[in-house]
């Protein structure tokens, strides 16, 4: 994620501190926040800078985690990192308050972003902030409310991302996509151990 | 990896009924001081699996925590306890070592503070 996009994202997150809209600030400040698919740790770092008490970054790729670790150190932030495949995450209950994530958009592996959402809604006790392509808005809302145990699903704002050619499967030099920032609220479970290796029900 | 994170992680190998808590094998522990937040500690306390946490802290070389979880009222007034709770939960880092699945004995290595929980193909 480019710094410019992060600034835009943070700007939107900070806007929502009036009583009418959901108070996003309360979801981060003094809370335990997990960044799913953290990559280089940008979102987690943002959460830490916004006052999260503890941040845990989870990603499958060791190179990204190495960079994330270095970034956290350079910013003098205290972030724990775990290398793991989200779909196989073994986690004990809803101890994390908030999950923030910029999941893979499901271009290469269909439904990857919904898989991430499935796990996030099992792990978070208060809120999940997630980015999904605007073109999938109806599908995401339906999946979240009907299948993934969300008690609410709201688009906070729409952003435009310039995605540069980063991966081998990217065909164009740069692409401009419309992305929704969502806030989901999970239904609370009764505090049992959760092993989240169950296949996403939408597969 | 802090003990707060350890208190949430479990083994998710195929066939394992209860993969929590992961046993800790220590090669290197690092202490990093971090500012104490009493309210945060009071909020997180009921969510912590105390036995797993106090056992883990002992393995990491810190013996000050009681084996039994104290009454929540202790957190209101006992600053000394809060300090010990804070230290064990957030200031002790497993830098090198391993996390071990309690049922299969499979070791998940921890390098530079990052546990590698990736499963092999036959464990999924």
From TrEMBL, chain A:
PROSITE patterns named in the record: N6_MTASE (PS00092)
SUPFAM superfamilies in UniProt: S-adenosyl-L-methionine-dependent methyltransferases
Pfam families xrefs: MTS
Gene3D superfamilies named in the record: Vaccinia Virus protein VP39 (3.40.50.150)
UniProt domain Methyltransferase small: residue ranges: 27-110
Family the UniProt entry places it in: Belongs to the methyltransferase superfamily. PrmA family.
Name of the featured protein: Methyltransferase-like protein 5
Gene (name only): LOC111303188
UniProtKB/TrEMBL annotation, chain B:
Biological process, per Gene Ontology: rRNA (guanine-N7)-methylation; tRNA methylation
MF (Gene Ontology): protein heterodimerization activity
PANTHER family membership: MULTIFUNCTIONAL METHYLTRANSFERASE SUBUNIT TRM112-LIKE PROTEIN, UPF0315 PROTEIN-RELATED
Family: Belongs to the TRM112 family.
Self-association state and partner proteins as the record states: Interacts with TRM9.
Name assigned to this protein: Multifunctional methyltransferase subunit TRM112-like protein At1g22270
Originating organism: Durio zibethinus (Durian)
Lineage of source species: Eukaryota, Viridiplantae, Streptophyta, Embryophyta, Tracheophyta
């Amino acid at each position: 994620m480019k710094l410019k996009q992060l600034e835009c994202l943070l700007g939107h997150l900070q806007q929502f501190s009036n009583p009418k809209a959901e108070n996003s600030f309360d979801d981060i400040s003094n809370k335990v926040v997990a960044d799913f698919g953290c990559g280089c740790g940008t979102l987690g770092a943002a959460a830490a800078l916004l006052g999260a008490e503890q941040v845990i970054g989870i990603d499958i790729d060791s190179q990204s985690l190495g960079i994330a670790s270095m970034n956290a150190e350079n910013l003098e932030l205290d972030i724990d990192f775990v290398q793991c495949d989200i779909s196989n995450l073994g986690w004990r209950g809803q101890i994390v308050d908030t999950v923030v994530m910029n999941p893979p958009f499901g271009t290469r592996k269909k439904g990857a972003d919904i898989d991430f959402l499935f796990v996030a809604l099992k792990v978070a006790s208060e809120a999940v902030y997630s980015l999904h392509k605007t073109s999938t808005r109806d599908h995401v809302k339906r999946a979240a409310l009907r299948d993934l145990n969300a008690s609410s699903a709201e688009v906070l704002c729409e952003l435009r991302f310039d995605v540069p050619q980063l991966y081998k499967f990217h065909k164009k030099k740069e692409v401009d996509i419309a992305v929704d920032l969502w806030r989901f609220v999970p239904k609370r479970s009764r505090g049992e151990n959760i092993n989240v290796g169950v296949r996403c029900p939408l597969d | 990896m802090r003990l707060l994170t350890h208190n949430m992680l479990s083994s998710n190998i195929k066939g394992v009924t209860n993969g929590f808590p992961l046993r800790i094998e220590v090669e290197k522990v690092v202490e990093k001081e971090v500012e104490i937040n009493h309210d945060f500690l009071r909020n997180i306390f009921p969510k912590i699996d105390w036995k797993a946490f106090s056992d883990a802290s002992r393995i990491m070389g810190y013996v000050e925590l009681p084996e039994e979880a104290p009454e929540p009222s202790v957190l209101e007034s006992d600053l000394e306890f809060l300090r010990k709770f804070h230290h064990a939960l957030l200031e002790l880092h497993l830098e090198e070592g391993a996390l071990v699945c309690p049922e299969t004995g499979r070791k998940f290595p921890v390098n530079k503070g990052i546990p590698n929980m990736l499963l092999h193909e036959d464990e999924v």
